[in-house]
Amino acid sequence: MGLNRRARILLINPNSNAATSAMMVAIAKSAATGGLDIIGATAIRAPQMIVSAEALEAAAPEVEEIARAHQESCDGIIVSAFGDPGLPGIKAMKLPAVGIGESSMFEAAERGRHFGVATTTPLLKAKIDALPDALGLPPLYTGTRIAEGDPEALMRDPARLRAALAGAVEACIVQDGAEAVIIGGGPLGEAARDLQPMFAVPVIAPIPSAVARIIRLLAA
């Protein structure tokens, strides 16, 4: 579809933290270059923060339910958790849909760049490691580095979160040879923005990646 009118995009937060949803919608709106109305929807059955593979998998049915409930009133959907829960089911509904995981990996891999992921959730590492395989990007993926500290404690202390993620980004670059580093998580969106000026290589913020990708899908 062309963008002859303001397209309505639903950003689904697969965790149950409404403040996180508001933050992610604000980031998405700031990344949109015009022509988009972005609204948020928050899961209610999920935990406040998804930190395990089991919680990520459990989130998928509710994400699909939210998408189904809004499919007549929106033009596209962003799944705003890094594991993209529920995304295959939403795409099967024939709705333009993207996940922040797939979108940021495609951006990071542009021009054949080797890329890594810096995140806070060690129990999601296997899920993150599997995503480049699913996207056909395994030769370019240098691995995931986990920030030091408890994920939920880090989220409560923005300065500590930023410093811990900076250490993980540095490890991706220096130890793994990454030429771009993704900050792996929707709730890490503000930290991702803060980290971008700190490094010579691109630091990819996944929510703006998803906004750019959904715009391209809608315009195709």
Describe the protein's architecture and organization.
The protein folds into 2 domains: 7-99 and 208-219, Rossmann fold, CATH 3.40.50.1860; 102-206, Rossmann fold, CATH 3.40.50. 46% of the residues lie in helices and 17% in strands. It is built from 9 helices and 8 strands. It has helices at residues 18-31, 53-70, 87-92, 100-108, 125-135, 151-155, 158-174, 189-195, 206-219; strands spanning 7-13, 36-42, 76-79, 97-99, 115-119, 141-146, 180-183, 203-204. The strands form 2 sheets. A 4-stranded parallel β-sheet has the order 2-1-3-4, with helices on both faces. Strands 6-5-7-8 form a 4-stranded parallel β-sheet, sandwiched between helices. Helix 3 links the parallel strand 3 and strand 4 (97-99).
Quickly list its features.
single chain; 220 residues; alpha/beta; Rossmann fold; 2 domains; four-stranded parallel beta sheet; 9 helices; 8 strands; 46% helix
Q: Classify the helix fraction into a percent range.
A: 40-55%
In percent terms, what proportion of residues is strand?
Answer: 15-25%
Q: Which H/E pattern describes the elements?
A: EHEHEHEHEHEHHEHEH
Q: What radius of gyration results from the CA coordinates?
A: 16 Å
In angstroms, what separates the terminal alpha carbons? 6 Å
Q: Oligomeric form of this entry? A: single chain
Query: On the 0-100 scale, what is the average pLDDT?
Result: 94
Q: What fold name stands as the CATH topology of the largest domain? A: Rossmann fold
Tally of contiguous helical segments:
9
CATH architecture of the largest domain: 3-Layer(aba) Sandwich
> For this structure, what is the CATH class of the largest domain?
Alpha Beta
Going by helix content, strand content and strand pairing, the class is: alpha/beta
The largest beta-sheet arranges its strands as 2-1-3-4
Report the uncertain regions.
Answer: none
Number of domains: 2
Tally of DSSP β-strands: 8
User: What profile does the largest beta sheet have?
Assistant: 4 strands, parallel
